[in-house]
Write a structure and sequence with these properties.
mainly alpha; AhpD-like; Carboxymuconolactone decarboxylase-like domain-containing protein
């Protein structure tokens, strides 16, 4: 399978995507564990059906020490007992923000309050930035049909 468009070789695509990469890296300077950010990226990518991002963030999370059990249960996190309350709040926020068009009010006050119990203001900024950036990358990759399976951890940064 080939992508419809090879983004890495297109100068305009590079100009457009570079700010997204920068925004994603800024979130990583917060005190939120990298594993939590990878779980957020993975869950949004699963919801959006982005194989390339699911591939990347599964491998990046494993490379950062995340267990296979937790990675395998991200899609069923509500029923899983392996996630902390803070991670569960981040995953709920991720799901509601990713499925924003499915709910008339967007992210519920309850989901926001739960996240705010576990994360300070800077961490919330990092979470919502991470959610927004991964959703943008998911959409770009789904549109161009970016193939999945060949990502090597650390390849992009």
């Amino acid at each position: 399978m080939d992508a419809r468009l090879h983004l890495a070789g297109n100068a305009l695509a590079t100009k457009a995507i570079t700010p997204l990469v920068t925004a994603g890296r800024i979130a990583e300077t917060s005190s939120i564990p990298v594993a939590t950010l990878e779980l957020v990226r993975l869950r949004a990518s699963q919801i959006n059906g982005c194989g390339a991002c699911t591939d990347m963030h599964t491998k990046e999370a494993a490379h950062a020490g995340e267990s296979a059990v937790r990675l395998n249960l991200v899609a069923a996190w509500r029923e899983a007992t392996v996630f902390t309350e803070a991670e569960r709040a981040a995953l709920e926020l991720t799901e509601q923000a990713t499925r924003i068009a499915d709910a008339a009010g967007g992210v519920t006050d309850e989901a926001w309050a739960d996240a705010a119990k576990h994360y300070d203001e800077d961490q919330l900024v990092a979470l919502i930035t991470t959610i927004a950036v991964i959703n943008a990358f998911n959409r770009v990759n789904v549109i161009v049909r970016q193939p999945a399976g060949s990502y090597t951890p650390g390849h992009l940064g």
